[in-house]
Design a protein that fits this description.
By secondary structure, the protein is an alpha+beta fold. The chain folds into four domains: 185 residues, HUPs (Rossmann fold, 3-Layer(aba) Sandwich), CATH 3.40.50.620; 122 residues, Methionyl-trna Synthetase, domain 2 (Beta Complex), CATH 2.170.220; 168 residues, Isoleucyl-tRNA Synthetase, Domain 1 (Orthogonal Bundle), CATH 1.10.730.10; 158 residues, Nucleic acid-binding proteins (OB fold (Dihydrolipoamide Acetyltransferase, E2P), Beta Barrel). The protein has 21 helices and 32 strands. A hairpin with an 8-residue loop joins strand 6 and strand 7. It is flat. The protein starts with a helix and ends with a strand.
Length: 725
């Protein structure tokens, strides 16, 4: 337990008052870096909720850890010529550091590869087996002879039997949303080897989930305080009919089955990772010398919250509760405040597809509290939200810095420069009383929203109080009042001080480092999390403030995105011959939000009937030009090696207007580009892993043109090096 010692000394909270709150955040999978979508999806909300509860006096245990078993990690290890444990070690360290850098502070950030986790999983597995909740029988699973392994469902792709989408995964079709089984796919292939898998019988243990259908439906129907999307999703899932679910797999990397004769199988990661919350709480308890401490948070009147993204809802609202009901000793979730997706340029954040920003990337250009503040303001609590660097800069500079930060600095500077002594307003009247009542009612509303995990609304309430406080400051005109009535001026400034105290306490869970610093600049000696709420009613006397610098530096994010090409998917609606040029066509093209006309030199290579309804790549922000008397409002991109001209292929069923990115770079929002600007991107055909792809060069690095991470390729066999123009 030595590994936990320093962390526990820092994070253990011992407040004997208030209720007990258990906060669990979904275990991030240890095979990739964290991006801002992960932070907005659950971890920031969990940390905010924890800091608020500690601030009001509740006892909290804050738990998460890395999910480190399963096939994806073994495959990544093979591709990097290392071991699964080395991959897990690497990303556990990296993820933990990203959380630390974002001020997301768990009491324990555990690992599913810890011995104690295996012990917890084994104990619960055997308990369910002895109670008759597990069965054992044959099932059919995809086996890749090339890889010499059974494959997880999502490692099989093929054509959906329902909608015909040819890139459906073995567990679900991303096009129509149907749940699938790998054997249902038409023309299934292994995504690793590209070969057709065999479907072999293999023997496994199954959790009898169907036995809990009625209990789960009754339980979820009682949850009036949950978010409507979580309730609706869970009810639909249960009412569609629960079936027994396999909890073991033919794997080498995972928690062993605690029975003889099953050495070549492991417990399925979906089952054992859900028990990581329990094992982490137990490990924490051992580390503080109180082995039964975790029971205070998993039994009795304690409330357990599970913060996660919407793709994790059924595992936590159906699977985990069923396991807990079967176990019979522990509390079911009190609330599951699952968030929707954070998007960037209309697409879900994804490292593999280069959509959005990694945590470490954004921390290089913005302070952690600025990122936390903006993400809170757009948390996808009840629907998907859109991340914008420009909006972040504007919102941080106006709401956090200009309104709140400037209010703090105006107060402290004026009080210090004029040597004013502040005292708690004893008998406020008129406008003074009104604004203090406003602060108190805003704080009560803020508390109600925080306790309902409506964090975005709570922040909005804070913003509204900031605006009211600034209006009161301006209407009080202390710079005039100090000359006429110094005592009344001190009274007004004391009211403003109380307002700033409320605002700083309220903003603390969202921007903890900045709020703690500002709390000190207000002359508060005790830590804000420990005593901030209590000190709001403290009858201070003869308080003077030290001179301080402005609490914030304005946020300015340089636009380091070099992609000034607004490349979009277009669909050709009509084709006409150019009246004045034998080699040119006139095309009408749908770009989703508008229709444009293009002039294209394709008559020698394509017939009109080959063009109508075809999806193409268009430079949509190219300056308009007259070509042989006809206006062209952009440019169609095609590969040309001097002999052969080829369109660029696009994913099936792609909508007009969809962005075509250069590597991870989406369009940076600049205005029109000139035809000469295109040469700076050296658009050409190159090879990537042996396949021809459309590439652009930026600072000497080739980047693949892609749509949602799918590479754009020439449809004909043009020569490598062919120009794209």
């Amino acid at each position: 337990m030595q590994r936990m010692k320093s962390q526990v000394q820092i994070n253990r909270k011992e407040n004997e008052l208030g209720m007990r709150i258990l906060v669990n955040c979904a275990l991030p999978y240890a095979n990739s870096s964290l991006h801002l979508g992960h932070i907005a999806g659950c971890y920031l909300g969990g940390d905010i909720f924890v800091r608020y509860n500690r601030m009001i006096g509740n006892k909290v245990l804050f738990v998460s850890g890395t999910d480190e078993y399963g096939t994806p990690i073994t495959i990544k290890a093979e591709s990097e010529n290392t071991t699964p444990q080395a991959v897990a070690d690497k990303y556990h360290r990296e993820i933990e550091e990203s959380f630390r850098a974002m001020d997301i502070s768990f009491d324990i950030f555990s690992r599913t590869t810890y011995r104690e986790h295996t012990e917890v999983v084994s104990e619960i597995f055997l308990d369910l087996l002895n109670k008759g909740y597990l069965s054992e029988h044959e099932m059919v699973s995809p086996f890749c002879k090339e890889c010499n392994r059974f494959l997880p469902d999502r490692y099989i792709t093929g054509t959906c039997p329902y909608c015909g989408y040819d890139k459906a995964r073995g567990d679900q079709c991303d096009n129509c949303g149907k749940t699938l089984d790998p054997k249902d796919l038409i023309n299934p292939v292994c995504i690793i080897s590209g070969t057709t898998p065999e479907f072999r019988e293999t023997r496994h243990f199954f959790f009898k989930l169907d036995l809990f259908q009625d209990s789960l439906l009754e339980w979820i129907s009682s949850k009036k305080n949950w978010r409507s999307n979580v309730i609706a999703f869970t009810k639909n899932f249960i009412e569609s009919g629960l079936k027994e679910r396999p909890i073991t797999r033919d794997l080498s990397w995972g928690v062993p089955i605690p029975l003889k004769g099953y050495e070549d199988k492991r417990i399925y990661v979906w089952f054992e990772a859900l028990l990581g919350y329990i094992s982490a709480a137990k490990i924490y308890s051992e580390s503080i010398g109180d082995p039964d401490y975790w029971k205070q948070y998993w039994t009795g009147d304690a409330r357990s919250y599970f913060f996660l993204g919407k793709d994790n809802i059924p595992f936590h609202s159906v699977m985990l509760p069923a396991i807990l009901i079967a176990d019979g000793k522990l509390n079911l979730p009190y609330d599951i405040p699952a968030n929707e997706y954070l998007k960037y340029n209309g697409e879900k954040f994804s490292k593999s597809r280069g959509v959005g920003f990694l945590v470490d990337e954004m921390l290089k250009v913005a302070d952690k509290d600025y990122i936390r503040f903006y993400l809170t303001s757009i948390l996808p609590e009840n629907g998907d939200s859109e991340f914008s660097v420009t909006e972040m800069e504007e919102k941080v500079n106006t709401e956090l810095i200009s309104k709140y930060g400037n209010l703090i600095h105006r107060l402290t500077s004026f009080v210090h420069n004029n040597k004013i002594s502040l005292g708690y307003p004893e008998n406020p009247l008129g406008a003074d009383l009104d604004i203090l009542h406003k602060a108190e009612s805003s704080f009560n509303e803020y508390r109600r929203m925080m306790e309902n995990v409506e964090l975005k609304k709570a922040l909005k309430t804070w913003v509204e109080l900031v605006q009211s406080a600034n209006a009161y400051f301006n209407e009080s005109e202390p710079w005039k009042l100090i000359k006429k009535d110094p005592l009344e001026c001190a009274e007004k400034l004391s009211v403003i001080y109380v307002l700033c105290s409320y605002l700083t306490v309220m903003i603390y869970p969202f921007v903890p480092s900045s709020a703690s610093r500002i709390w000190g600049s207000l002359g508060r000696k005790s830590g804000i999390e420990k005593s901030g709420v209590k000190e709001l009613s403290h009858k201070f006397r003869n308080l003077t403030l030290e001179k301080t610098n402005p609490p914030f530096i304005p946020l300015k994010i340089a636009n380091d995105n070099p992609n000034s090409l607004d490349l979009r998917v277009g669909r050709i609606l009509s084709v006409k011959d150019h009246p004045s040029a034998d080699r040119l066509y006139l095309l009408e093209v749908d770009l989703g939000d508008r229709k444009i006309h293009l002039v294209a030199g394709l008559r020698s290579q394509y017939r009109p009937e080959e063009l109508v309804s075809r999806s193409i790549v268009v430079v949509s922000n190219l300056k308009k030009a007259k070509i042989r008397g006809e206006t062209s409002e952009g440019m169609l991109l095609a590969a040309d090696d001097g002999t052969l001209t080829s369109f660029l292929t696009l994913p099936d069923n792609i909508k007009p207007g969809t962005s075509v990115d250069l590597g991870k770079y989406s369009f940076n929002g600049q205005n029109v580009v000139e035809i000469d600007d295109l040469s700076g991107f050296n658009l050409h055909v190159g090879t990537v892993n042996g396949d021809a792809e459309a590439l652009a060069s930026i600072d000497g690095t080739d980047l693949s043109l892609n749509v949602n991470g799918v590479p754009v390729r020439p449809e004909r066999d043009v020569k490598v090096g062919a120009k794209i123009k």
